[in-house]
User: What shape does this take?
Amino acid sequence: MIAAVTAAIAGICAAAGIIELLATERGRLRPRRAAAPPSRLAAVAVRLARLARRPGVRAEPGGFDGRIAAAGTPLGLAAGEVMALKAVAALGGLLVAVPAVQALPSRLAFAALVAAPVGGFLAPELALRRRVRVRRKRVVGELADVAELLRVAVAAGLPADRAIGEVGRRLRGVLPGELAAAAARLELGVARGEVLRELTVRCPGEGVAALVAAIARSDRHGAPLAPALAALAADARAEQARGLRDAAARAAPKIQLVVALVLVPSAMLVVGAVLLQSLHS
Assistant: This one.
């Protein structure tokens, strides 16, 4: 009973804090180009993460910044803010689990008290990894068109920087959006090497590193860029064809399973009904 009352008080305090944050920090989130406006829940999560980071939450080592960049820097959160959000989610999971364990047996109550904060801590990480997988799939699907249009622009005489910007403005998707952002940073005077490295990190699909390497090689040694882009586009289309063939090969056993479990029994039922009707007649 005491735990339930404590959890209720904590929930009321958290709700009051959220309302105060929304009232005092409205408009703090900066809109990003070609991104949907964040929902109310996402805005609350961002503010909670940034509030929790003020005491000083250290970022997780081991490439966490790169994983956030590969996910597209969702909601503009940095590594420390994501770690703070994970801590807040773990605390929230614990507060949610405390009232619920009153009706559970002792062993299940202990498991729930352990699993709830662990699940809350891992939930932002799992969402981040899923976003990276989705972005990688989209980048791989867009690479062939991007490389082909870049080849046409470069063959027409445009410099690489302007060609990247034009392709980013004329196409829609993850990779064109990152190319447009890279072109904007180049126009602002950011070092080309830094922009290309960030482009490789933010676009986790296969082939983007080859695209960046071709652009860097053209800048460094003056190698023609159009043949490299044509080869990259051909490789990307071949990879897409292999992916479609693999997906078709994986779908065949599933179709056979559906036929074996659904169509064959239904056909046998029809035949059995006909036989029973003939026997009764």
